[in-house]
Amino acid sequence: MSLADIQSRITSAEQQAGRKVGSTKLIAVSKVQPNENVRSVLEQGHKLFGENKVQEAAGKWPEFREQFEQVNVHLLGPLQTNKARQAMGLFEAIHSLDRPKLAKTLARLAQELGNCPDLFIQVNTGEEAQKSGVSVSDADQFIADCRELGLPVVGLMCLPPAQEDPAPHFRSLRAIAEHNGLEHLSMGMSADFEIAIQEGATHVRVGSAIFGARDYSGQAR
Q1: Angle (CA) 142 75 195, round 5°
Q2: Which of 11, 129, 178, 202 lies in the 20 to 30 Å Cα band around 137?
Q3: What's the whole-model pTM score?
Q4: Where are the alpha helices (DSSP H) in 17-53?
Q5: Beta strand spans in 42-105 (E)
C-alpha cells in the first residue's frame, strides 16, 4: 500500500457514497514511524499527520516544520492534563477531549495563551471500560459544557470495538454530531476507513496502510 493508493481509495469511497470528492481529510498516522518514512510522505506533498503522544511529537515535528511549509499535526491519543500546555503549542487539533478535568484545563490555558487547537470530543461508542471517551448518553451534556467553557469544539471522534461491525458506531457518532450541530467526524482507520467515509467521516486516520507495519521495539507502549 502507499499514500497514492490510499488517496485513490478515499476518492473512490467518496464517489460511491455520493459525497464531494476531497471532502474527507486523510490524517497520516505517523506515530512510532522512523523519520525517513515520515519524510518520504512529506516529500510527496502530504501535509496532515497524526501522533498519539505529546513527547514523540515534540521530538519530531518542530524540525520537520522548519523544512516543510503548512504542515498540520493532530493529537489522536489520550492527553494527560500535565501535558496539555505543551500540546497546545504542538498541535493544530486535538481529537481526544474526553473528560471534564481536561476540558477545564484546556479552557484555562486557552484564556492564558489566547488561542486553542481545534477540539474533537472522543465518544466511547462501544461503552468499553478500557477505552477513553464520554459515553453516548453523556455526550450531549459534555458538548454543551465544553461550549460553555468557550472551547472550540469542531467535531467528534470514536474508536469502535475491534471485533464489532464499525458501521453502527460511526452512525451513532454522526447522529450525536448532527444533533449538536458539529461538522467534523474523526472516524475510520486503515481497516475500515471506506466504511467510515460511507457513514460521513470528514477525517480518517490511516497509518499502517501508508507507512507499513509499525516497529514497537524499544518503544514504551
Answers
A1: 80
A2: 202
A3: 0.95
A4: 35-43
A5: 48-51, 72-75, 93-97
